[in-house]
Amino acid sequence: MHAWLAWVGVVWIPQKAFWDLELYRYWMWLGLHEGQWPVLSGDWVYPAGAVVPMLAAAAGGTAGGSGYATVWALLVTALDAGALGVLLHAPRLARPVGRSGHRHPHEPRVTTGAWWWIGFLALLGPIAMGRLDAVVAPVVVVALAVTLRHPRLSSVLLTVGAWVKVAPGALLLAVVVAVRRPWRDVVLPAAVVCVVVVGAVVAGGGAPHLLSFLGEQEDRGLQIEAVGATPWVVWGLWSDEVERFLNQPIVTWEVSGPGTAGAADALGALFVVGLAACAALLWWRRLHLGPRFWQDAVAQRELVVRGAMLLVLATIVFNKVGTPQYVGWLAPPVAVALALRLPGWRVTAWTVAGVAAATQVVFPWGYDQVLAGEPLVTAVLAARNVALVVLLVLTARALLRPPAHPLPGDAEVPASDAHPRTQGWASDAGGAPGVSPEVAPGTVSSPAGSP
Fold first, then answer.
1. Are 82 and 142 in contact (CB under 8 A)?
2. pTM (2 decimals)?
3. Is the Cβ–Cβ distance between 402 and 70 less than 8 Å?
4. Is the distance from CB of 298 to CB of 405 less than 8 angstroms?
């Protein structure tokens, strides 16, 4: 699958699929040959840590040709392979500290999350490899999978990801809510990473440009693929008042028309308000579950993973920027949830897969038609954006509902009356039928392959 994505981006349609890699290559050429490094020498659209993967790909050469893109594809393939290995062993890696790390003879090998991860990347297409987000997504997979067992490692990985591409930093909110000692296990490790990065930038003379990526985002208008741009993109099919134009300084296509400037400003405010509302909902969920929350690994994992999904969706829906690679942020929570056999993720998994497929239809294959105002591909884009809003609502509703499985201390439910999606979940009180007490809470005993 990765060989196919690499062939599409490196050989077949490099100017469409892997165009951003040409920018990365050029920036690294300026740094290596002219001494003009991003952030150190001037303002940049990305956080300082983004230089690291871009520089790693420079091993393939920065003078031109396909060497840079080829090494980048190999880098992404290696990172995705690591994430795949984590997904295959997610129940063991997520097991609470103190439990055996060995798989019980009757514990099935969980492959659902791994297969879904591969399928998602194939559906998303070359954009799943040819952008900076492709480096961050597998790191987030590992971070979410190990959060409860190794919260400090999770915090470090998410903070490193945030210094490459901002979005993973929002997921720290879900981790903070779900661990017992947030200051020691989340805030402190994140602060250490930030001190290292900031120190390196200051030592290199880039202090004035350290946070320039925030200002670069403020200068953007309403991007054509953004969820908030959907009414104008559809309206533009019939009206000449809506214009699609290229924002030359940052090389992005935006939409302009009556009300778009106000919508862009409103989304800037809603972005902050939306993330704050998500954090409040997660905190309410934790308080609502009460002391029993700390006794139930399933509830803890669900809060982390569903919370991460909520935060990711908020960053996409309430964003005036809507580049197609943002859809890749949806994959880690879903893949980890399926790998951990968390209940109630089937609809989300299928919907996210559909969003990925629709995104590939829009970019790279139908992007010219979107820019030209062709109705069919524009309808696909609009439907995808509506699906993202629906996903946000469904995820919030899932966090507002009671747990889909009995918490420790609840009245025991006879196996014959239990909901089929909750049967097979182990508990600290002795486990469910067919599951050894040695298996961690949250490890299901249903056959592998069932979402």
1. yes
2. 0.87
3. no
4. yes
